[in-house]
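Worked Example 4.2. Consider the chain below.
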Amino acid sequence: MPLINPSRVTEIFMDCHWKSDQTAGKSEEQLIAESAVAKTVACYVGFNPATLRQHQKEIAEMLLNLEPDFMESSGANGMTFLRAPLDKNADQWGEQQSADRLIALGMALGWVDFPFPRPAWIALPGSVPYVVVRDKKINEDLEKQDEVR
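Applying the procedure from the previous section yields the following C-alpha cells:
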C-alpha cells in the first residue's frame, strides 16, 4: 500500500490556495507579496502561508516518504521528477500531476528545490528536472514549530 495519498495531496493543495474571504480588499500586488510561491514543472502558484503552515507537518511526512535519493542527506543531489510518483517503498502513489502538487507545497515551504536551472532541464532524462527534498531543513522547521507550541 502506498505511503502517500494522492487525494490528500490534492485536498491540501486546494486548501492552501487563497479563499475569496481572505483576498477581499487586497490588491493583486498585495496578494503576490503575501503569497508563498512555488514554480514547479507544471504550475506557478501562490499559496496562503497561514494555511500552508497549518498543513506543514502532513506535507513534511509526505515529502519524507518519497524515495531516499530525493533527500538532500542521501548525497545523491536529487532524483528525477519522473520518479516522484513513487514512495520510498517503490510503490506508485500517484501520477505526475499529484507529484507536481506535492512538490509545489514543499517548494512554498522552502523544503524542495530543483538543483539544476530550468534551461538545463532539456539535457536531463525526459527533459524534466531533478528534485531535491531538503530533509534536514524539514526536520529543523518541525523542531522549531514544536518548540513554539
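The longest helix spans residues 135-148. The chain has one domain: 6-148. Compare this with Example 4.1 before moving on.
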